[in-house]
Amino acid sequence: MRLYILVSCLFISMVSYTQEYYFPERNAVWETIPVKEAGMDSKIVKESIAFANANEYSGSRDLRIAILEGFKREPFHQILGPTKKRGGPAGMILKKGKIVAQWGDIKRVDMTFSVTKSFLSTIAGLAVDQHLIASIDDQMDRYIWDGTFNGKHNSQITWRHLLQQNSAWQGILWGGKDWADRPPREGGLDDWQYATPKSPGSVMEYNDVRVNVLAYSLTHLWRKPLPQVLKEEIMDKIGASTTWRWHGYKDAWTEIDGIQMKSVTGGGHSGAGIFISAEDMARFGLLFLNDGQWRNTRLISSQWIQQATQPSVPNVNYGFMWWLNKKGPRHWEGLDEDIFYAAGFGGNFIIIDKKNDLVVVTRWLEPNKIGEFMKLLSKAF
Question: Does pTM surpass 0.85?
Answer without folding.
Answer: yes
